[in-house]
Write a structure and sequence with these properties.
mainly alpha
């Protein structure tokens, strides 16, 4: 899902740059470096969109768009909706608080797996992963991702 948000924001910002998409308020305040400006003005090949895309990639490469707040903030670059999670809640049919809580729980578990080798810090034993839990997480992420995609397309 992090990759999806990165891609949606990158493509959406390029479309806004090209005038093919309404520019959000946050997009309007997205600054570019002098190097990007100079490069985009001094060459026609590659086109200015290329240099703008490189700026987006460079600025976002170390960011993780996983938590509800980070996702909403990133989407603000392409979507001027003030109540993003309310809209996503309506689209998914999941109450907003449950939507955010479930996402936070999934991210917390993901971080436990990645950063703690999926070991219980107190007992030193590996935590169990249930197939049903995995299926539920995949289904949730698919529903949420599709709702985000449809909201910003």
């Amino acid at each position: 899902m992090d990759k999806l948000i990165h891609e949606l924001v990158r493509f959406g910002m390029i479309e806004a740059f090209q005038g093919k998409r309404v520019r959000s308020n946050k997009f309007a305040s997205f600054g570019i470096t002098t190097n990007t400006l100079t490069s985009s003005l001094s060459t026609l090949i590659p086109p200015p969109e290329y240099w703008f895309e490189q700026e987006i990639i460079e600025r976002h490469k170390m960011l993780a768009f996983q938590t509800p707040d980070k996702i909403a903030d990133a989407l603000s670059l392409i979507w001027d909706e003030s109540h993003k999670w309310q809209k996503l809640s309506m689209a998914t049919g999941i109450p907003e608080i449950d939507l955010k809580t479930q996402l936070k729980t999934i991210i917390s578990r993901r971080n436990q797996i990645v950063h703690e080798a999926d070991m219980d810090l107190f007992t030193g034993t590996r935590n169990k992963i249930d197939k049903k839990d995995i299926d539920d997480v995949i289904s949730f992420i698919e529903i949420l991702s599709e709702s985000i995609f449809n909201a910003v397309k």
